[in-house]
């Protein structure tokens, strides 16, 4: 008679963030032992155990001790970010913190597996029409992308030189409830919700938004992260995570307006510095991820936008 192995106990770093919150709730629902790690416990409280820890300042030895005390099998690093941060603030949030995390893991006799949430921005700007695999050249054009790529390289070095068990998930642009307020869709949803609450017409100023990028429903992304905790077969050190097709930001804004049902007046404004159409393109090959994690995206972008709108509208009532 076969015995089902216990589910891994998971520490989520950045547990109060956009991705971290959904990941924590999903892990709790699926029966994983959970340690949520962030600078402070939010209200309402996160599920599972909670540890207040500053990943950019507190001692790596204390982080290693925390993982040991909670018998952590897998660490998911969903900390970091770019929205609302200056270039200087992004350095400790995206690179320094990963260096400290690797120091903590390297000090442990049996370090947990690491699932690092990377970004499509590590690749930089793709030639229009090209689909990128994990072996495609990474030439990030933004400070955020450069820092995340450096973090990936640090992790790859730990895998190569120390045998760390780790994977980096290069994630596209995620859409869902709790969208960061500084993001394009977060700003648009806030303006629509404000107009709805006032019973008026939303006034939206939009650039051409002709760039086409990778977008993904938040829950599809989280499902892949859960699948990466303990993949059944071989798992490459870097995996792309998206829908596998490019979509325009303008398309998502229009879906958001439709889902809201709020009367909207759109004013077209020119792109800054005379930017022309199709200046940005991201499209990922996700076939390696589908094979390694036995995962596929199953939710539409309309579903993602509908979830985003429902949360933004409810927050105003």
Tags for this entry?
seven-stranded parallel sheet, 38% helix, globular, 317 residues
* Shape call: globular
Strand content: 15-25%
Q: Which regions contain 5 or more consecutive residues with pLDDT less than 50?
A: 274-278
Straight-line distance between termini: 54 Å
The tally of helices reads: 9
Radius of gyration: 20 Å
Q: What is the β-strand count?
A: 12
Spatial strand sequence of the major β-sheet: 3-2-1-4-5-6-10
Which series of helices and strands comes N to C? Answer: EHEEHEHEHEEHEEHEEHEHH
Helix content bin:
25-40%
Report the sheet with the most strands, covering strand number, pairing sense and barrel closure: 7 strands, parallel
Mean pLDDT: 93
- How does the helix and strand content classify structurally? alpha/beta
What do you see in this structure?
- The protein has nine helices and twelve strands.
- The strands form three sheets. A seven-stranded parallel beta sheet has the order 3-2-1-4-5-6-10, with helices on both faces. A three-stranded mixed beta sheet has the order 7-9-11. A two-stranded parallel sheet has the order 8-12.
- Helix 7 packs across helix 9.
- About 2% of the residues have low confidence.
- The protein has 317 residues and is α/β, with parallel strands linked by helices.
